[in-house]
Design goal:
The complex is a heterodimer of chains A (508) and B (208). Chain A is 72% helix and 0% strand. Chain A has 508 residues and is mostly helical. The longest helix of chain A has 45 residues, at 2-46. Chain A starts with a helix and ends with a helix. Helix content of chain B is 50%, strand content 13%. Chain B has a three-stranded antiparallel sheet. In chain B, α2 packs antiparallel against α3 and α3 runs antiparallel to α4. The longest helix of chain B is centred in the C-terminal third of the chain and has 23 residues, at 185-207. The chains are: A mainly alpha (508), B alpha+beta (208). The interface between A and B is large, with 67 and 52 residues.
C-alpha cells in the first residue's frame, strides 16, 4: 500500500518540479521587476488601474507573459502589494497560466484556429465575469500600495532584483507554490491509473462536470495543457470537457486559491471558486457542440488525463523501482537547468535571509554609489528598465518559439536520425529505446507542423494529413512495442518508415 | 495573512494523497463502463485502390434492380480492463483465417482483471458507403498519391460525403434509404467516377 502511494508521489513530484521550475523562476523575476524597477505606480498604470480597460489589460498581459499557474503566484502577490485592483489580479492570475505565445502557436496547429480563438475568448469571458464580480460585489478593505523607494542605479539595482527573486522563493510565495504542487501530486496519487480515459467522450453529457470536479488541483504548463486540448480535439472527445480542463485544470490550482483565501478571506474565495466553476461549466456546455471538429472519428478514449493520475496499477509489481527509473529518465530528458536555477536562487534566498539580520540591504540599495560618474554613463530610469524587461520577456518568448519550433529543414534533419533509431529499435526488439524514440518523434512531428505554420502562416492540408498518418502509424507501433510483439513491431516499423518518408517529401 | 486558513488548505493535498492509500486491489467483477460499441473502422479499405473499387461496387449494388446486399457482419471481441471510471476496452476483429489476437499486455494489464464481451457488428451498404467517402482523404494520405491528386480526391470525397449524409437518413428503413440514394444516383456516380479516375491516373503515373 505504502509503495503504491510513494511510487506515485515520487514520479509525479519529479515531473511537476521539473515542468514548473523555470516558470516559477520567471514568475518571481517578473514580480521582482514590478517591485524593483517599475514600482507600484507604474505597475498600476500598466494594468490600467481605475480605468475601464483594467480587466482587458490583465487578460492581455496574462496572454503575453510566460508564466504557469504556480509562477503566477509571486506576480499576483506583487500586484496586490502594488495596489492593483483585485478584479485585474483575478483576470491576470487566471489567464496567464492558460496561454502564452508558444502554447497558442502549438494549439493552432493541433486544432481548428477558430476553436483556439473561441477558447481564448471564452477564457476572457470567464475572467471578465469573475473580475467584475470580484471588483464590484465583493467588499474588502481597500489595499494601500506599499510605499517603497526604488533602488539606485547601477549594480545595486541588479542585485536588488536577484535579492527579491531569491527572497520570494524562500518566503510566502514558496508556501503557496508548495500547496499547489502538493495538490497536484495528491490528486495524481488518489486517482487510479486510467481514470477518465473513457469518460470524456463527446456523447457523455456529464463530461464537462466530471472534469470540473477533479480539475482544480491539477498542475499543467500552458504548453502541456494546449497539447492535451489539441489531443482531445483530434480524438473527438468532449470539447466542453477540454475547456473545463483548460480553465480549472491549467488555470487554477490550490496554491493560487490558498493565496486568494489568505488575502481576501475563505468565504470570499469559496464564492469565487463556485462562480469560476459555474461560469466555466456553463461556457463549456455552450461551446461543446458548436466547436466540435467536423470530420473527426471519435477515438473512444483519451489519454489527456493519464499524466494527472497515478502512473501505476495497484497490482503492478516493482513500483518503487519503476518510479525511480522513470523519474531519472524524466529528469534527464526534460531538465535543462530550470530546477538547478530554482534551487540555486532558493539557496541564495536563505543566504540573504541570514545576512539580512546583520546587514540592512534595503537601505544599502538606496544609497547612490560613491564612485565618480563618467560622462559616458547613461542614466536609465528604473521604470524604463522595467518596461524593457517586461517587453524583453515577451519578445524572448516569441523568439523562443522560433527556436523551439525550428524550420522544416532543420527539423527534418533531426527527424531523419530519430526515425532511423526508432525503426531500428523496433526491429531489433530494443523495446525501451523504441518507446522512447516513438514518443520523441511524435512530438517532433507536431513541432514540425508548428514550425511551418510559424514561418508560412499556415500548414497545407496535405502536409497535415501526411503528418497525421505518420503519427497514427507511430501509435500502432507503440502498442506493438508495449506488447513486445516482435512480428507486428517489425511489420509496423516498415509502415512507420514509409509514412515518415511520405511525410518528409511533403515538407521539403 | 491568515495562517490558519493557509494551513487548513494545505491539508487538502494531504487528504487527497491519503485517499491513494485506500486503493489496493479493488478490481472486482463488474461491468464495462461503456455501453455499446464506439465507432470502429474494421470495414475501412486497406488501400486507396481497394477503396476506389469498393465505392464502385457499393454504388452498383445500390442502383441495380437486385436486392440490397446483406450487411457485412464483423464479430468483435471486446476486452475490458479494470472497472469503474478507469475501465477501458480494446476491440479486436475475429476472422476465420487468423487466430484472434489475445490482449496486448501493455502497462501492467496482465495483472488486471479483464472481462471479455463478444459483439456482432453489422455494417450495411449505406453506412459503408458514407464511411468510405469520409475516409478517402485519409486512405489517400497513406499512399504515394501526389498533392494535386490528393486535393482533388479530398474535394470530391467531401462533396460525395456531404451529399450522402444530407440525403440518406440512416435511421430509416432500407427501402427508404435506397429510394433516397436513387434520387442522387447521377450525381454520386459522377463523383465516384471522378474519384476513380484520379486514383487510376495517379497509380498509372506511379507505375510509369
Amino acid at each position: 500500500m505504502m509503495d503504491y502511494v510513494l511510487s506515485g508521489i515520487s514520479l509525479r513530484l519529479t515531473e511537476t518540479i521539473v515542468n514548473s521550475a523555470v516558470w516559477i523562476v520567471i514568475g518571481c523575476f517578473i514580480a521582482a521587476v514590478f517591485q524593483r524597477m517599475l514600482g507600484p505606480e507604474k505597475v498600476c498604470r500598466i494594468f490600467g488601474n481605475g480605468t475601464r480597460w483594467s480587466l482587458l489589460s490583465g487578460w492581455l498581459m496574462g496572454m503575453l507573459l510566460p508564466v504557469c499557474s504556480l509562477g503566477v503566484i509571486p506576480v499576483v502577490r506583487e500586484m496586490h502589494r502594488a495596489g492593483v485592483s483585485r478584479g485585474t489580479i483575478v483576470a491576470f492570475g487566471l489567464t496567464a497560466p492558460l496561454f502564452n505565445p508558444m502554447s497558442i502557436l502549438y494549439g493552432l496547429t493541433l486544432s481548428d484556429p477558430l476553436a483556439i480563438l473561441s477558447f481564448s475568448l471564452c477564457a476572457l469571458a470567464v475572467v471578465t465575469v469573475l473580475g467584475l464580480v470580484w471588483e464590484r460585489f465583493v467588499k474588502v478593505e481597500a489595499v494601500e500600495a506599499e510605499v517603497r523607494s526604488m533602488p539606485t542605479y547601477g549594480i545595486k539595482r541588479v542585485l536588488s532584483l536577484f535579492h527579491s527573486v531569491s527572497i520570494d522563493l524562500t518566503g510566502p510565495s514558496l508556501l503557496f507554490i508548495l500547496i499547489g504542487i502538493a495538490g497536484s501530486v495528491g490528486l495524481a496519487v488518489s486517482l487510479e491509473k486510467g481514470y477518465l480515459q473513457n469518460q470524456v467522450e463527446h456523447d457523455n453529457v456529464y463530461a464537462p462536470v466530471m472534469v470540473a470536479l477533479i480539475a482544480t488541483p491539477i498542475y499543467s504548463t500552458p504548453l502541456l495543457a494546449m497539447s492535451q486540448i489539441g489531443g482531445m480535439f483530434q480524438h473527438g472527445n468532449s470539447i466542453g470537457a477540454a475547456f473545463t480542463l483548460l480553465v480549472l485544470g491549467a488555470g487554477a490550482n490550490l496554491g493560487l486559491l490558498a493565496w486568494l483565501g489568505a488575502t481576501y478571506g475563505i468565504r470570499r474565495v469559496i464564492l469565487f471558486y463556485l462562480l469560476l466553476a459555474l461560469t466555466s461549466i456553463g461556457l463549456a456546455y455552450a461551446i461543446d457542440k458548436p466547436l466540435y471538429p467536423k470530420g473527426v472519428t471519435p477515438a473512444g478514449h483519451t489519454h489527456a488525463f493519464d499524466v494527472y493520475t497515478h502512473p501505476y496499477n495497484s497490482v503492478q509489481t516493482n513500483k518503487m523501482e519503476l518510479a525511480r527509473k522513470q523519474a531519472t529518465e524524466f529528469w534527464n530528458a526534460n531538465e535543462f537547468g530550470g530546477t538547478k536555477i530554482l534551487l540555486g536562487l532558493m539557496a541564495l534566498g536563505f543566504l540573504f535571509r541570514i545576512v539580512d539580520s546583520s546587514f540592512d540591504f534595503e537601505s544599502w540599495y538606496l544609497v547612490e554609489p560613491a564612485a565618480a560618474v563618467s560622462k559616458m554613463d547613461l542614466f536609465i530610469p528604473g521604470w524604463a528598465l522595467g518596461v524593457i524587461s517586461v517587453v524583453g520577456l515577451i519578445a524572448s518568448s516569441v523568439f523562443a518559439c522560433y527556436l523551439y519550433y525550428p524550420d522544416s529543414q532543420q527539423m527534418l534533419y533531426d527527424m531523419d536520425i530519430i526515425n532511423a533509431d526508432c525503426v531500428t529499435a523496433a526491429r531489433t526488439e530494443d523495446w525501451e529505446a523504441a518507446e522512447k524514440w516513438i514518443r520523441y518523434i511524435d512530438d517532433l512531428s507536431r513541432r514540425l507542423e508548428v514550425g511551418v505554420f510559424l514561418r508560412n502562416g499556415s500548414v497545407d492540408e496535405f502536409q497535415s494529413a501526411k503528418a497525421k498518418v505518420f503519427r497514427e502509424k507511430l501509435d500502432d507501433l507503440k502498442h506493438a512495442v508495449e506488447a513486445k510483439d516482435s512480428t507486428t513491431s517489425k511489420e509496423l516499423s516498415f509502415e512507420v518508415d514509409k509514412a515518415y518518408r511520405r511525410m518528409k517529401e511533403t515538407f521539403r | 495573512m491568515n495562517l490558519k486558513l493557509v494551513f487548513s488548505l494545505a491539508i487538502i493535498p494531504v487528504v487527497l494523497a491519503m485517499l491513494g492509500c485506500n486503493f489496493g486491489d479493488s478490481v472486482s467483477d463488474g461491468e464495462s463502463s461503456k455501453v455499446g460499441l464506439p465507432k470502429l473502422d474494421f470495414h475501412r479499405p486497406k488501400s486507396i485502390e481497394l477503396a476506389s473499387q469498393r465505392l464502385g461496387e457499393l454504388h452498383t449494388s445500390l442502383v441495380s434492380d437486385s436486392d440490397l446486399p446483406k450487411p457485412r457482419r464483423f464479430t468483435i471481441k471486446e476486452v475490458i480492463h479494470g472497472t469503474g471510471a478507469s475501465a477501458h476496452s480494446h476491440y479486436y476483429r475475429i476472422t476465420d483465417d487468423k487466430e484472434t489476437s489475445l490482449d496486448d499486455p501493455h502497462d501492467g494489464h496482465d495483472n488486471m482483471k479483464s472481462q471479455i464481451r463478444m459483439h456482432d457488428l453489422d455494417i450495411d451498404v449505406f453506412t459503408e458507403l458514407i464511411d468510405i467517402a469520409h475516409w478517402m482523404p485519409k486512405i489517400a494520405a497513406e499512399s504515394d498519391i501526389d498533392k494535386v491528386t490528393w486535393d482533388q480526391i479530398k474535394k470530391l470525397s467531401a462533396e460525395l460525403h456531404q451529399k450522402l449524409i444530407s440525403q440518406i437518413d440512416l435511421e430509416s428503413n432500407d427501402d427508404s434509404k435506397r429510394e433516397s440514394y436513387l434520387k442522387i444516383e447521377n450525381e454520386t456516380e459522377i463523383l465516384i467516377t471522378k474519384i476513380q479516375f484520379e486514383i487510376s491516373k495517379s497509380v498509372q503515373t506511379k507505375n510509369e
